[in-house]
Amino acid sequence: MTSPATPPHHASRLLLWLVAIGFFMQTLDATIVNTALPAMAVSLGESPLRMQSVVISYALTMAMLIPASGWLADRFGTRRTFLGAIVLFVAGSLLCALAQNLPLLVAARVIQGLGGALLLPVGRLAVLRAFPGERFLPAMSFVTMPGLIGPLLGPPLGGWLAEAVSWHWIFLINVPVGLVGFFATLAVMPDSQGRSPDRFDLPGYLLLALGMVLVSLALDGVSELGMRRATVLVMLVAGFAALTTYWLRAPRQAQPLFPPRLFHVPTFSVGLLGNLFARLGSGSMPYLVPLLLQISLDYSPSQSGLMLIPVALAGIFTKRLITPLIHRLGYRRVLVVNTFLLGIAMASFAWISPEQPTWLRLVQLVIFGMANSAQFTAMNTVTLKDLDSTLASSGNSLLSMVMMLAMSMGVACAGAILDIFSDLFAATGHDAPRQAFQATFVVMGVMTTLSAAIFWQLAPGTARRPGDRHAGADL
């Protein structure tokens, strides 16, 4: 099937708003629960330090479904797939609000993640077909701007709702927005299917999904699930075996999920691995910082949410500075130095104490926000910059999958390390929770600094060119 004719100008603008709002809701729900986790734990009768599965389940589900998003859009059409994504997202949100215990809440977050995983990739495809050629980049820049606002509003909004009303409204607010989006999709989104979809590599997809789930569950099983060490070890080995099997069979497939040729591009290989390991540390911070502020410093949920606004504002400001810096110094220098700075900024949270002045705490958050934003922009653009047109789509999908996978694994790692140190310091009986947080921040910071060795493998002269792809790359 061929794509429909380009829609009228007013319909095109409405399409951009529709996709932008869908992306905003996706990014909002990735961060809005973090400041409400302690309140949710009290309501559900759980420990605040063992609520990471609420975050992990959403991010991991998104990582699992992203590889299938393009095929689903080609098979069922962009409008029907986008409608299905909204239905799943709204249904999952409603079930989250109705959940009476942690397992039901996690299951509902999985359903919500299934919808959230499709909102941006399918929306991006709809925009690509409605705004071809040179019109695509400005259109995607408009669509991805709400992706910067979602993390800005998520923490304070989640904290305020948990404190002023109840944590259930964190999810209920998605229902009216989703209903409006459903009818708007029927009205303005073209039902384009493009070319006939290729044969879907279902065995490869199952291997990849199984590997991601087993590795993440093994990391989470150390703390929240209370698994025995032998079980965790078996799950880790089985997960890595499934991932290895996928990459060994991919070169023999006519249409693999991700072409092995991607890894013939040096900047892509380095950037993808750097993304995975650098995000293990930085991806855990939106989970760790609100917990630290509420558990160790007695902040309210809304206060802890407001404390995270400087992180998002500093990140938005830094995006204007990082491109000229890369042009001048090159990717290798910027990424190696900034990865060290990011790790040090993370480790510095170990020195947060009740006696620390508020202004110094804000300075720490601003420095972390700037380093984190620079890291994301630089390592994402270097990953995609040298891909040709035949590899750009699959490379962008693989990068998106790795970003969400690293987020889920980072939270799982942080939760496991925090649990280990909590048990270790519990015997001292003196401020054990704060000591556990201090040690966890140091470990996660060290992990991040070590990933600088990956970016050292970039060629010394690697720099950004005017034609580099960057639509949505800094998210």
TrEMBL record:
Protein location: Cell membrane
GO cellular component: plasma membrane
Keyword Transmembrane: yes
Pfam families the UniProt entry points to: MFS_1
Keywords: Cell membrane, Membrane, Transmembrane, Transmembrane helix, Transport
GO MF annotation list: transmembrane transporter activity
Family matches, as InterPro entries: EmrB-like, MFS, MFS_dom, MFS_trans_sf
Residue ranges annotated for the Major facilitator superfamily (MFS) profile domain, each copy included: 15-463
Source domain of life: Bacteria
PROSITE patterns: MFS
Transmembrane segments: 54-73, 82-100, 106-127, 136-154, 166-188, 200-219, 231-250, 262-282, 302-322, 334-352, 358-378, 398-418, 438-459
Annotated membrane topology: Multi-pass membrane protein
Name of protein: Major facilitator superfamily (MFS) profile domain-containing protein
